[in-house]
Amino acid sequence: MNEWMENGCRLAWLINPIEETAYIYKPGMEPLMQKGFKKKLSGENVLPGFELDLKELMI
Fold first, then answer.
1. What pLDDT score does 2 carry?
2. Which residue from 23, 27, 24 is spatially nearest to 5, judged by alpha carbons?
3. Rounded to two decimals, what is the model's pTM?
Protein backbone atom coordinates (compact mmCIF):
# COMPACT_ATOMS: atom_id res chain seq x y z
CA MET A 1 0.00 0.00 0.00
CA ASN A 2 2.82 2.40 0.77
CA GLU A 3 4.09 2.01 -2.79
CA TRP A 4 0.61 2.87 -4.11
CA MET A 5 0.53 6.01 -1.96
CA GLU A 6 4.02 6.99 -3.14
CA ASN A 7 2.81 6.69 -6.75
CA GLY A 8 -0.18 9.01 -6.39
CA CYS A 9 -3.00 6.91 -4.95
CA ARG A 10 -5.12 9.22 -2.78
CA LEU A 11 -7.21 6.67 -0.86
CA ALA A 12 -6.89 2.92 -0.34
CA TRP A 13 -8.55 0.35 1.88
CA LEU A 14 -7.06 -2.93 3.03
CA ILE A 15 -9.93 -5.08 4.30
CA ASN A 16 -9.62 -8.29 6.31
CA PRO A 17 -13.06 -9.93 6.44
CA ILE A 18 -11.94 -12.71 8.77
CA GLU A 19 -10.71 -10.33 11.49
CA GLU A 20 -13.31 -7.68 10.58
CA THR A 21 -10.75 -4.92 10.27
CA ALA A 22 -10.21 -2.28 7.63
CA TYR A 23 -7.11 -0.16 7.21
CA ILE A 24 -7.58 3.23 5.57
CA TYR A 25 -4.56 4.61 3.75
CA LYS A 26 -4.09 8.25 2.76
CA PRO A 27 -0.93 9.96 1.49
CA GLY A 28 1.38 11.35 4.14
CA MET A 29 -0.54 9.70 7.01
CA GLU A 30 -0.23 6.55 9.05
CA PRO A 31 -2.98 4.06 8.17
CA LEU A 32 -6.09 4.22 10.33
CA MET A 33 -7.50 0.92 11.58
CA GLN A 34 -11.24 0.44 11.85
CA LYS A 35 -12.37 -2.59 13.85
CA GLY A 36 -15.74 -4.16 13.30
CA PHE A 37 -17.91 -4.20 10.23
CA LYS A 38 -20.84 -2.19 11.61
CA LYS A 39 -19.68 0.98 9.84
CA LYS A 40 -19.28 2.12 6.25
CA LEU A 41 -16.13 3.21 4.50
CA SER A 42 -16.45 6.53 2.73
CA GLY A 43 -14.96 7.51 -0.61
CA GLU A 44 -14.36 10.90 1.00
CA ASN A 45 -13.30 13.59 -1.47
CA VAL A 46 -11.75 10.99 -3.81
CA LEU A 47 -15.08 9.31 -4.62
CA PRO A 48 -17.71 11.73 -3.29
CA GLY A 49 -20.93 9.99 -2.28
CA PHE A 50 -19.45 6.48 -2.47
CA GLU A 51 -19.81 4.27 0.61
CA LEU A 52 -18.86 0.66 1.16
CA ASP A 53 -21.08 -1.04 3.73
CA LEU A 54 -18.75 -3.43 5.50
CA LYS A 55 -21.70 -5.46 6.86
CA GLU A 56 -21.96 -6.94 3.34
CA LEU A 57 -18.55 -8.58 3.90
CA MET A 58 -19.35 -10.29 7.20
CA ILE A 59 -18.67 -14.02 7.11
1. 86
2. 27
3. 0.87
| Amino acid sitting at position 53 | D
Q: 12-46: buried (b, 16+ CB within 10 Å) or exposed (e) per residue?
A: beebeeeebebebbeeeeeeeebeebeeebeeeee
Rounded CA-CA distance 1/4 in Å is 5
Domain boundaries, given as residue ranges, for the chain: 2-57
Upper half-sphere CA count for residue 4 (Cβ side, 13 Å): 11
Residues whose CB falls within 8 Å of the CB of residue 32, separated by 6 or more in sequence, listed in order: 23, 24
Report the C-alpha gap between 28 and 52 in whole angstroms: 23
In tens, the pLDDT along 16-59 reads 999 999 999 999 999 999 999 999 999 999 999 999 999 988 76
